[in-house]
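Hi R.,

Here's the chain you asked about this morning:
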Amino acid sequence: MTNLYEAGDINQTDGGHDEVDEIDEFDEVDEVDDYDEVAELDGGTPLAVLTYLARSLSNDPDAVAIDTEERRGGLRLSLHVAPDDMGRVIGRRGRTAQAIRTLVNVAGAKDGVQASVDIVDD
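And here is the predicted structure, written out as C-alpha cells:
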C-alpha cells in the first residue's frame, strides 16, 4: 500500500471522496425552534448561544436547564445537564467547557454584557 501523505500536506486524501455527505445531526435537537425567542428572554444572546450549544452536545437535551443571574455589569449562567452528559459538556481537560465559555462571552460582548458560564454538578 502506498502512503499518499506528503510532509506538509495536511489535506491529502485518497482521492475517492469528491462529495461531502450532508449530515443533519441537529434536526433532532431543535426542540426550541426559534433561538431568537430564547434570546429575547433575560439572558439575551449569551443565553441563546449556551442553550443551543448545550442542547446540541447533550444526549438528553430535555435535561438541559440554565439559570440566569445578573451581576455587577455582567450575567452569570449556570448550566445543568444530565449526569451522563457532564463529560461531553466538559470535554477532555476542560477544553469543551472552555470553548463554551469563550463563545458565550463573545455572544455577551455583542450585547455589551460580560457573560460567564458555570457548569453545575447536581
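One quick note: Confidence is low (pLDDT under 50) at residues 17-41.

Cheers,
M.
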